[in-house]
Specification:
alpha+beta; Surface presentation of antigens (SPOA); membrane; FliN_T3SS_HrcQb; chemotaxis; FliN
Amino acid sequence: MNEKISRILDIPIEITAVLGKTRMPLNEILELGKGSLVELDTLENQEVEILVNGKKIAYGQVVISQQNFGIKITSVLESEELVNSLK
């Protein structure tokens, strides 16, 4: 492996899957409690955004395996889109 690349391989990054978004008035948020349901704007079977350090890099589908949730990457942004998302 390239020595220059090996120096950065242990740098932690944050990966986030955005399942959906919503807007709610503050009074509704204050009423949330255990068992509350928050409706998101993402439809069933719609691809979710995958972010790395807060920047969108790909899309994926939610999968369940042995009672665990995961994300299957379905597409990665093209180089030009990736560069634009970093701005």
